[in-house]
Amino acid sequence: MTVARILAEKGSSVVTVSPDKTLDEVIQILADKRIGALVVAHADGTVAGIISERDIMRALARHGGSAFDAPVSAHMTTAVTTCGRTTTIEEVMTLMTDGRFRHVPVCEDGQLIGLVSIGDVVARKIATVEAEHQALRDYITMA
In this structure, are residues 44 and 8 in contact, taking their beta carbons and an 8 Å threshold? Predict the structure, then answer.
């Protein structure tokens, strides 16, 4: 299974913020949308960075309450690992495990076209394993 299939099933809309939004605004969006990360994008749709709950905790630990008024660009992760539509679930799992992150923006021709989370990957992987198990049970029953 590829990222294209995940996006086809879950949709390709991504909540983004501009780099000039404050950390306080980002926290409100994360809470309102009940999500764990936001892609920070330029007006042209290119990825500038990503801000996660972990990034926010690090900013608060380093700067205290003054971090709330700072632009998200001061605290986001700028070295963002991305994937494409043809990336397999196994490849995304490896990226997430090796990089120790839970969200991977999906880009095509330099433009953001979706976001894959660890929850998306695990749900699809479990569904695949269950389908394989059912196929084996059916095969054994018919033999």
Answer: no
Round to whole Å and give the CA distance between 42 and 139. Answer: 52
d(CA 104, CA 82): 5
**Each residue of 77-136: pLDDT tens digit?**
999 999 999 999 999 999 999 999 999 999 999 899 999 999 999 888 888 888 788 888
pLDDT at 38 > cutoff 80: yes
Q: b/e map of 57-74 (b: 16 or more CB within 10 Å)?
A: eebbeeeeeebbeebbbe
Structure tokens at 123: 């749900």
Angle at 91 between CA 115 and CA 42, to 5 degrees: 30
Residue 58: both structure tokens together:
């690090």
CB atoms within 10 A of CB 108: 13
Residues 6+ apart with CB under 8 A from 39: 14, 15, 16, 17, 47, 49, 50, 105, 112, 115
Distance separating alpha carbons of residues 14 and 12, to the nearest angstrom: 6
pTM of the predicted protein model: 0.84
